[in-house]
Amino acid sequence: MESRPAGAADRARSASPLFEAWERVRNSPGWIVAIALLLRVGWIVIGHTYKFKNTDDNFGFGWEMGRIGASLASGHGFSSPFGPATGPTAWEPPLYPYVIAGVFRMFGIYSRASAFVLLTLNSVFSALTCVPIFLIARRIFSETVAVGSAWAWALLPNVLFWCTRAIWETSLAALLLTTIFWLALTLEDRDGWMPWFQFGLLWGITALSSTSLLSFLPAAGLWAWYRRARRDKRSLTGVVLASVIFFACIAPWLVRNYQTFGKFIFIRDNFGAELRLGNGPGADGTLMVYLDATHDAYGMRQFQAMGELPYIAMRKRQALAYIRADYGRFATLCVRRFIYFWAAPPKDTQPWWMSEAKNSLFLAASVLTFWGLGRALRLRKPGAWLLFWLFLIYPAMYYFVYCIPRYRHPIEPEMAILGVFLLTEAGKKPKASPLNQSSERESA
Model's pTM, two decimal places? Predict the structure, then answer.
């Protein structure tokens, strides 16, 4: 029997049209996005995730944003975030509630058709996130990491969960932050006014959608400025342009808030109430959801009687009094919240083994992230320090308030990149190449 030389089978397979087609699909961001979207929409249909229960008067359909969207769609303006008429609100940033309102007007308030459209839109945001993930991973690491990271985002069940079950801006936030991260990485290579225009516009949209992401704005801007300065590129004009575009985006909402409430409110006003949900008698580092106005009848009566701003101010005073009474206790709560952000808060609504399994996977993703980040820093990968600042700055606010798993989702694209990078580095020694060493001398 005639035997083929070593490697002949591999060459024959690689020459087949089917294998070549698969290689094109496997390495194409466009195909990855298409398959990711197909999986998400397919799960919405097969899992009937568009069928929200109405036993809670549809509050689970978008929660506060759903209530505001329903108020807008019914002609009552941007108001009443909890259902009962409580007047104008700045409880949430405006962009996503207006999206909900537009869908409600076309397909019906709290209808299944509206749910399907909104979840599909979230799935589009989630699928499109594969593109900046691919670009970031390829720039910092390699083509292999880029392909693996994009596929991980397309296929991971925890990613599919948020876009197919939650009507919230979570998936949009991940897309915006990842796109901004990629833009900050590439500003050093790009000239002209367009990159700065895009930078300001994206941050303006982000402010009106997910205001908490703004904590990363100074780090992203300063990092891009520093990298350009190392190449003797001027940035002052671009920074001014980006700032003008950013403030032009948010100015109409700031004016609306001032005209509505008679005082300056930067995008949203609910921080004091959120601070109280994590700090007060009975605090253990988790969300004290029973104090939320939707679960506390007495709190809702206070909200209606006092109005939004006085209610929030009262809640803030209560939280600050609790914090000042025992700073050591507050520090302990902050440590717990740090742990819960990265290892998931404890759950008591499921079988213990399921909760433990989910939390173990949640923690494993964090371990891979920190391990991968440490290796990237040791290898002096360009952009590793921007990843470091993202993971340092963005979660910090939640250590002082409270955290739930959804709050981590906007940075999970970068976590996926680092996890895949670490897996591709298995068995290798952390030795920086001369190219990376010289490149890092120019980086922050």
Answer: 0.92
